[in-house]
Amino acid sequence: MNDSTPASTEYAGLVTRGVALVIDAVVIDLIAVVLGAAVHIIVTALGGSGSLNLVGALAGGFAWLLWSGAYFVAFWTVTGQTPGGRLMRIRVVGPGGRVGFVRALRRFGGLVLCTVTLGLGFLPVLFDERRRGLHDRLAGTVVRWDDVPSGPQADAESRSAPGAESGPAGSPSTATAVRVAG
């Protein structure tokens, strides 16, 4: 990588990742509400009271956590992108490019820790050279712009080809713009 280009230009920042997470939360919650309403209709149709007690609330919360975990782990494992990540053009990658099942589980566990601590686990994204939060560090992942190649070969190529990096949406990096203009 060229010394005049910040190393973090290929990594997505806090705001982009936050917007992607909000989009994913909306998708998760909409599906959960629809399924919860369907369960309520079925229970009341079968003669249930339809009222919510502590056990029902805890079961619903546990089901929501399982659903959220399945959503993130499945998308990270299969494509490296959730729907929110796809809309924001970012991708989660592991050391070899793909995120395996166990790594995705660790990342989701870290995401839960980040959330339980009221977002403190996301703060390292602001200061880390590779813009990694607690969940990224626990899983050994990074979040890159989707149009930036990933994997060991891409890392080697980007380090050996000065000015070859690009930022979001394929815009040339500062080093490339200076070289072209200069």
The mean pLDDT is 80
What class do helices, strands and sheet pairing give?
A: mainly alpha
Alpha-carbon distance between the termini?
19 Å
Low-confidence residue ranges: 1-5, 156-182
Order of helices and strands: HHHEHHEHH
Helix content percent band = 55-70%
**What is Rg?**
20 Å
Total E-strand runs:
2
Q: What does this molecule look like?
A:
The longest helix is centred in the first third of the chain and has 32 residues, at 14-45. The protein has one domain (7-177). Helix content is 56%, strand content 4%. A two-stranded antiparallel ribbon has the order 1-2. The chain is mostly helical. The chain is elongated, with a radius of gyration of 20 Å. Helix 1 (14-45) crosses helix 2 (54-78) and helix 2 (54-78) packs across helix 4.
